[in-house]
Automatic annotation (TrEMBL):
It is found in: Cytoplasm. Pfam families: ADK (PF00406). Pathway: Purine metabolism; AMP biosynthesis via salvage pathway; AMP from ADP: step 1/1. CDD domains: ADK (cd01428). One of its GO terms (cellular component) is cytoplasm. AMP binds at T32, R37, D58, L59, V60, G86, F87, P88, R89, Q93, R134, R146. ATP binds at G11, A12, G13, K14, G15, T16, R128, G174. This is Adenylate kinase. The gene is adk. Keywords: ATP-binding, Cytoplasm, Kinase, Nucleotide biosynthesis, Nucleotide-binding, Transferase. One of its GO terms (molecular function) is ATP binding. Consists of three domains, a large central CORE domain and two small peripheral domains, NMPbind and LID, which undergo movements during catalysis. The LID domain closes over the site of phosphoryl transfer upon ATP binding. Assembling and dissambling the active center during each catalytic cycle provides an effective means to prevent ATP hydrolysis. Monomer. Belongs to the adenylate kinase family.
Length: 190
């Protein structure tokens, strides 16, 4: 089983790339955003709580995120592997994910970070917000707040995974196909 974390700021292309990678490597794509939206749409208690944080541009608390993610993994235990998209976002989440995977006799093989300039990403999100209906993609101030949250809480994960020799930065600018090939080169060499 291969477990890959796809890392990057909102708008970096994690969801787009995950679609290609899950097909190419037969992975189950676990997007915390999709898991949150499913729970919000179905008005679960977890979904209502997640929405209250997302509407402010804040990260959903670790305990809530982990509970939803664990349920998704447990529902796909026969998978060849998992592609974690948008999780972990904090050091505490990374440590909890490691513990959870160890309980399943598994571990993270690689963390791949899609990197791009903030201004390019803000433009991408504002464009996406025109059609997605997502309130957190329609307000530049909320987007910048999300990036501040990312820098404060998520960027330290780079050091955590670098210390384990599992961190791979990838240029997230270019054609979708070019970026997919950059990601595939890393995965093929794991």
């Amino acid at each position: 089983m291969i477990n890959i974390v796809l890392f990057g700021k909102p708008g970096a292309g994690k969801g787009t790339q995950a679609e290609f990678l899950k097909k190419r490597y037969n992975l189950v794509h676990l997007s915390t955003g999709d898991i949150f939206r499913f729970n919000i749409k179905n008005e679960t208690e977890l979904g209502k709580l997640a929405k209250s944080y997302m509407d402010k541009g804040d990260l959903v608390p670790d305990a809530l995120t982990i509970k939803m993610l664990e349920e998704s993994v447990d529902n796909n235990l026969g998978a060849d592997g998992f592609l974690y998209d948008g999780f972990p976002r904090t050091l505490a989440q990374a440590e909890e994910l490691d513990k959870f995977l160890a309980s399943k006799n598994s571990k993270i093989a690689a963390t791949i970070a899609l990197e791009a300039d903030d201004e390019i990403l803000i433009h991408r999100l504002l464009e996406r917000g025109k059609t997605s209906g997502r309130s957190d993609d329609q307000d530049e101030e909320k987007i910048r707040h999300r990036y501040q949250e990312y820098n404060e809480k998520t960027a330290p994960l780079m050091e955590y995974y670098k210390a384990q020799n599992k961190f791979y930065p990838v240029n997230g600018i270019g054609s979708i196909a070019d970026i997919t090939e950059r990601l595939s080169t890393i995965i093929n060499n794991l």
